[in-house]
Amino acid sequence: MTHILAFESFDGGSHKQFRETLMNHSEHDWNWVTLPPNDWKWRMTIGAKELVQKAEGEGAFDKDVDVIFATSLLDVAALRALLPKPLRTTPLVLYMHENQVAYPTHDKRDATFAFINLNSVLCADKVLWNSKWNLDSFLGGIDSLLAHTKHSLKDIEQEVRAKSEIAWVPVEEPPPSIMRVKHDDDFIRVVWPHRWEHDKGPEELLELARQWTEPLNLKWILLGEQFREIPSALQTFLDEFKDDIEHAGFVQSKEAYWDWLYKADWVLSTATHEFFGIAVVESLLAGCKPWLPNRLSYPELVPHESLSASPYKDVSNTQFEAVNAHINPAKASIATKHIDSLINMTKW
Q1: What predicted TM-score, i.e. pTM, was given to this entire model?
Q2: Which partner for 7 in 70, 78, 106, 197 could form a disulfide, CB atoms 3.0-4.6 Å apart?
Q3: 293 with 337, same domain?
Q4: Which domain covers residue 152, as residue numbers?
């Protein structure tokens, strides 16, 4: 059994879901040191010191450690430098949930956090990316940023790719106690499972709803987390299609969440930003058909021919059977086994 000392600076949302799922299915012995999901910028600049102090207080450095594991909202170079001397040469695996190069921003880009990511990647012994899109967007963005600086760095892309592997996020399957029930309604249910923010494409959601709700007799299910400010396009959607919305809002109960996914016929994504797409994968595992754009991580999550699927096109059952087979590596037990094996390969 491999003894892993793991650090998570932002233990909330998809980061927390990843950690808990990984621990539920891994063959390794995990000792996590975590911080609450507050102020990600602060976590990236000083979080390493906070985590090391917390680890000292919890006696984490007094236990056997074969591998150090860290995630992407953390300065891993600082973490490694702050570890007790005997642990500074311990193999370190970095899991990249996201990268700050490709992260959308309304402000002029501050490259500081992108270069913290770069230092983290260069300092790690093995880097796991939750999608090929995540890796490729990082390398493309870093190359563009470096082009505007005076530097003598060489072969950065080759160095990063040589230590990188793609490792999908482990996603729990629906519990056997909840079943998909065939309904006799004459309408089509579509689930939009995103958080209610601008980078999830509410404008495109509104446009598609206006175009297809009436002719296809669509009913809508919105399951994402809401925040204080609702994008104007989403508020317009809620007002215009209130009679066609079966549910709109975050669902606390995971059982109720799966129940809504089982009710849906299709999962729609309009995201303009996504590094993996846990909610879409959950919907696919629940049997929803993919109504997905040909961008971001989606070309990895479903077969190529399925990216053209939508409720307004004729599609075959064979097409959707291929989706089920394709998404199989994201199932929690399989994806975790893959991550476990990559960690084992990093030990020396």
Answers
A1: 0.93
A2: 70
A3: no
A4: 3-169+332-346
